[in-house]
TrEMBL record, chain A:
Biological pathway: Amino-acid biosynthesis; L-tryptophan biosynthesis; L-tryptophan from chorismate: step 5/5
Family membership: Belongs to the TrpB family.
Record text on subunit structure and interactions: Tetramer of two alpha and two beta chains.
Organism: Winogradskya humida
Function: The beta subunit is responsible for the synthesis of L-tryptophan from indole and L-serine.
Keywords of the record: Amino-acid biosynthesis, Aromatic amino acid biosynthesis, Lyase, Pyridoxal phosphate, Tryptophan biosynthesis
UniProt domain Tryptophan synthase beta chain-like PALP: residue ranges: 63-380
Modified sites of kind N6-(pyridoxal phosphate)lysine: K96
Gene3D superfamilies in the cross-refs: 3.40.50.1100
Enzyme Commission designation: 4.2.1.20
Catalytic function, reaction form: (1S,2R)-1-C-(indol-3-yl)glycerol 3-phosphate + L-serine = D-glyceraldehyde 3-phosphate + L-tryptophan + H2O
Protein name per the record: Tryptophan synthase beta chain
PANTHER family with a match to the protein in the record: TRYPTOPHAN SYNTHASE, TRYPTOPHAN SYNTHASE-RELATED
Automatic annotation (TrEMBL), chain B:
Catalytic activity from the UniProt record: (1S,2R)-1-C-(indol-3-yl)glycerol 3-phosphate + L-serine = D-glyceraldehyde 3-phosphate + L-tryptophan + H2O
Matching PANTHER family: TRYPTOPHAN SYNTHASE ALPHA CHAIN, CHLOROPLASTIC, TRYPTOPHAN SYNTHASE, ALPHA CHAIN
Name under which the protein is recorded: Tryptophan synthase alpha chain
Function of the molecule: The alpha subunit is responsible for the aldol cleavage of indoleglycerol phosphate to indole and glyceraldehyde 3-phosphate.
InterPro entries reported in the protein's UniProt record: Aldolase_TIM, RibuloseP-bd_barrel, Trp_synthase_alpha_AS, Trp_synthase_suA
Presence of the UniProt keyword Amino-acid biosynthesis in the record: yes
Gene3D superfamilies reported in the protein's UniProt record: Aldolase class I
Annotated pathway: Amino-acid biosynthesis; L-tryptophan biosynthesis; L-tryptophan from chorismate: step 5/5
Matches recorded under NCBIfam families: trpA (TIGR00262)
Length: 393, 284
């Protein structure tokens, strides 16, 4: 076995484990549904017909492949070669569309007529509502009351797409509570309803399935980068991490290369850096919690990174040393967003600006020496963040 | 912990969220006086994904007033001398993994129910519980297929918890029809020859003393529903309906009456079919 294959991101083993992380920690009522979903996904993912259909919708509806943009000006300023994988150009404005197209097609294949989804900032909710509209499925999106106030525009977008948005008024009234509520609703409506989970979290098969639906980011980037760089692969691959779906999809395309993989967390929501082993939302991973196991709230300027946990495969990649996880502060993020806008003419999402902030800080240091080549996934566009940026500046 | 069948009446296990009020242990004593066979104490959790509005609210209220797992277990230990009935802790996996099974055992806990720990994930905790002398009570759902239900029946200890409905905890106006079917399936499987090796039960389940009881829970809200569930299973767990009263400010004396009404309905519900015998003294 070569080093490269040893380092690859594999399918999870027995019961959905990535190393010691993952699993299926759900009530007995959901076990048959999780098992049926796993079987349906395995079947679809090995069916060339399903893959062709997904590729078609990715191309004609979502606008894939997304561009690879060399950040010429910023590269010159930082003394590195920075390539941006432009998920901000995908339909609905972020990488979330990759996952929902896959899950909606799968739901339809399973004979489900309704999607339910959890959302924090609203990006996954909008994407799920979009896919539901496209495939003629009903959609209900659960969203914390506090997030509904903060992200009114996305609530309107979901309504415009025909989805019901249900406020979640319990707990901290944010993403983690919306996820709990979606799980509860799934238990009660499992016959006709598919739970369209938005990240590489949750019970098996979600972390694996969502990574596979997102690996289109990494697979495309691998081909695109090969044409740009003499070495074929970049020295460093970097992406922001909340639950970790854009990072997982990006890393999947490079895990079997020698590239360093860097996940960038928000300093106020860094489950890899500050978390401990725990079980939340159906899997064993690292999570922000107190000594007794009560889950903590995350705090970040980017609502999409306001999540106390992280996908189990990231916990495994971090533990095994294959990927490295770092944090940046809200101030660094705001500075990075503005600098990218001025140098490249790209206003990225606050979430994506975390990855940019790390590159700016690390460039020219031992972490990222001059002359390094970097592939950075710009997970989404900044339109949703304008009101917040007006207040912040 | 042994919840003995054959006492001539269905078992009653009322639930209380630990730490829900300052004097929460008074409710436990009231439950006991009203004729509970065991009491389920829920550990409040920040992310109760299998609970409906009422238990979520109770959990939030407990955490907001500063209840901790450690304090709840201390308070349980403090009234241990006055509690004759077994205490069963119900909790989410994350809390159990943190607090550790030995700590529960030291607090005098006899049984443990972990709502988000299915068969595939529970083996490790089952052996730890066995070593600590705590019964692991496993849950079965209406959608659980027979082969899986058989494993649950054979691995569960104390009793088999039959979740009456596809849904979360909470009061309901009627008892879900799936409840009766699930309880019947579980009783049949418990009476199978494979089980008789351990339990010496007869094939047709006519010797219920020797097999594990099947208790119906989730949504059992009124004395009438309890009576129906008590006939279908071997007893009931009642949670949200009681917690609703506690959250609305009812006193331990009020709850004693509530549980007493459930007790009476269960006993009468059976007395029409089977002669009812008074059981006195320690029911452990």
């Amino acid at each position: 076995m070569t080093l490269a294959t040893q380092r690859g991101m594999r399918d999870p083993v027995a019961g959905g484990r990535f190393g010691s992380f993952g699993g299926r920690f759900v009530p007995e009522s959901l076990i048959p549904a999780c098992a049926a979903l796993e079987e349906a996904f395995r079947d679809a993912w090995t069916d060339p017909g399903f893959r062709q259909q997904l590729d078609l919708f990715r191309a004609v509806h979502a606008g894939r492949p997304t561009a690879l943009t060399p950040a010429w000006n910023l590269s010159a300023e930082l003394g590195i070669t920075l390539l941006l994988k432009r998920e901000d150009l995908a339909h609905t404005g972020s990488h979330k569309i990759n996952n929902v197209l896959g899950q909606a097609l799968l739901a339809r294949r399973m004979g489900k007529t309704r999607l339910i989804a959890e959302t924090g900032a609203g990006q996954h909710g909008v994407a799920a509502a979009t896919a539901a509209a496209l495939f003629g499925l009903r959609a209900t999106v659960y969203m914390g009351e506090r997030d509904i106030e903060r992200q009114a525009l996305n609530v309107f977008r979901m309504n415009l797409l025909g989805a019901d948005v249900v406020p979640v008024t319990t707990g901290s009234r944010t993403l983690k509570d919306a996820t709990n509520e979606a799980m509860r609703q799934w238990v009660a409506n499992v016959d006709d309803t598919h739970f369209c989970l938005g990240s590489v979290a949750g019970p098996h098969p979600y972390p694996w399935m969502v990574r596979e639906f997102q690996r289109v980011i990494g697979d495309e980037a691998r081909r695109q980068v090969a044409a740009e760089l003499p070495a074929g692969v970049p020295d460093v691959v970097v992406a922001c991490v909340g639950g970790g779906s854009n990072a997982a999809g990006t890393f999947a395309g490079f895990a079997d290369t020698g590239a360093r993989l860097i996940g960038v967390e928000a300093a106020g929501g860094a489950a890899m850096t500050d978390g401990t082993v725990g079980v939340v939302h159906g899997s064993r991973s690292l999570v922000l919690q107190n000594a007794e196991g009560q889950i903590a709230e995350a705090h970040s300027i980017a609502a999409g990174l306001d999540y106390p946990g992280i996908g189990p495969e990231h916990a495994h990649l971090g533990e095994s040393g294959r990927a490295q996880y770092v944090t940046v502060t809200d101030d660094e993020v705001l500075t990075a967003l503005k600098r990218l806008a001025r140098t490249e003419g790209i206003i990225c999402a606050l979430e994506s600006a975390h990855a940019v902030a790390w590159v700016m800080r690390a460039a020219g240091t031992d972490e990222l020496p001059h002359g390094s080549t970097v592939l950075l996934t710009l997970s989404g566009r900044g339109d949703k963040d304008m009101a917040q940026l007006q207040v912040a500046s | 912990m042994t919840l003995r069948l054959g006492t001539g009446r269905p078992l009653l296990v009322p639930f209380l969220t630990g730490g829900v009020t300052a004097g929460w242990t008074d409710y436990l004593l009231a439950y006991q006086e009203a004729g509970a066979d065991a009491i389920e104490v829920g550990l409040p959790f920040s992310d109760p994904m299998l609970d409906g509005t009422t238990i979520q609210q109770a959990s939030d209220q407990a955490l907001t007033r500063g209840a901790t797992v450690d304090a709840i277990l201390h308070e349980l230990t403090a009234i241990r001398g006055r509690l004759r009935v077994p205490i069963i802790v119900m909790a989410y996996a994350n809390l159990v993994l943190k607090v550790g099974i030995e700590r529960l055992a030291r607090a005098g806990v006899s049984g443990l129910i972990v709502s988000d720990l299915p068969l595939e994930e529970s083996a490790e905790l089952e052996s730890a519980a066995a070593a600590a002398g705590i019964d692991m009570i496993l849950l079965a759902a209406p959608v659980t297929p027979d082969d899986r239900l058989r494993q649950i029946c054979h691995r569960s200890q104390g009793f088999v918890y039959a979740v009456s409905v596809m849904g979360v905890t909470g009061e309901r106006t009627t008892l879900a029809p799936e409840a009766e079917a699930l309880a019947r399936r579980a009783k049949l499987l418990l009476a199978e020859p494979a089980a008789s090796v351990f339990h010496a039960g007869s094939r047709d389940g006519a010797d219920p003393v020797q097999r594990l009881p099947v208790l119906i829970g989730f949504g059992v809200s009124t004395p009438e529903q309890a009576a129906v569930a008590g006939r279908a299973g071997d007893g009931v767990v009642v949670g949200a309906a009681l917690m609703r009263r506690v959250l609305d400010g009812a006193s331990p004396a009020d709850l004693r009456r509530e549980v007493g009404a459930l007790r009476a309905a269960l006993d009468q519900g059976v007395s029409t079919a089977t002669p009812y015998a008074e059981i006195s003294g320690d029911r452990r």
